[in-house]
């Protein structure tokens, strides 16, 4: 009567698959894909730092900030891409990352989040290059292209990193 049915197996399969289907996170950054790849991923200002998520969001850590900011809102990440030079909106697969929901952290601490509309999720230390799925390139607020990490790695330009980019937290 209570034996395993196909429906039970299907529901179990979906439950296990759920984390693999997690939504992308996004980060707007001035650093080129070559710079991000050369660094091994998107690095925080101080990967060995120990500042809290609360202090990170309140921007009190400065150069000692061990957190990498991302957002779950693609449009929000794209909204900051208005530089006359190239700006990149990176799509990040959160699988395998210890992603912290900053809104939940503030609720847990019984504090008011100063920027809940940013929908910020943060990762301590770094986001490895392999978690970067693709990126959109913007110039003057207009999208000029989309490149996947795989396309990039198979192109000739992947081995020549450029220097001098600026980081921007989305």
TrEMBL record:
The lineage of its organism: Eukaryota, Fungi, Dikarya, Ascomycota, Pezizomycotina. Residues 1-22 form the signal peptide. It comes from the Eukaryota. SUPFAM superfamilies: ADP-ribosylation (SSF56399). Keywords: Disulfide bond, Signal, Toxin, Virulence. This is Inhibitor I9 domain-containing protein. Residues 147-170 are annotated as: Disordered. The keyword Disulfide bond applies. One of its GO terms (molecular function) is toxin activity.
């Amino acid at each position: 009567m209570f034996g395993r049915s196909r429906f039970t197996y299907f529901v179990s399969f979906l439950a296990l698959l759920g984390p693999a289907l997690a939504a992308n996170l996004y980060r707007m950054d001035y650093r080129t894909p070559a710079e991000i790849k050369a660094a091994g991923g998107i690095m925080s200002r101080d990967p060995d730092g120990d500042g809290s998520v609360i202090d990170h969001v309140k921007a009190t850590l400065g150069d000692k900030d061990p957190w990498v900011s991302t957002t779950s809102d693609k449009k929000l990440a794209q909204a900051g891409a208005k530089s006359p030079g190239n700006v990149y909106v990176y799509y990040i697969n959160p699988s395998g990352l210890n992603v912290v929901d900053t809104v939940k952290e503030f609720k847990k601490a019984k504090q008011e989040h100063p920027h809940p509309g940013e929908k910020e999720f943060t990762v301590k230390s770094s986001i490895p290059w392999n978690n970067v799925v693709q990126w959109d390139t913007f110039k003057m607020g207009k999208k000029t292209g989309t490149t996947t990490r795989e396309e990039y790695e198979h192109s000739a330009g992947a081995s020549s990193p450029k220097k001098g980019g600026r980081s921007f937290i989305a």
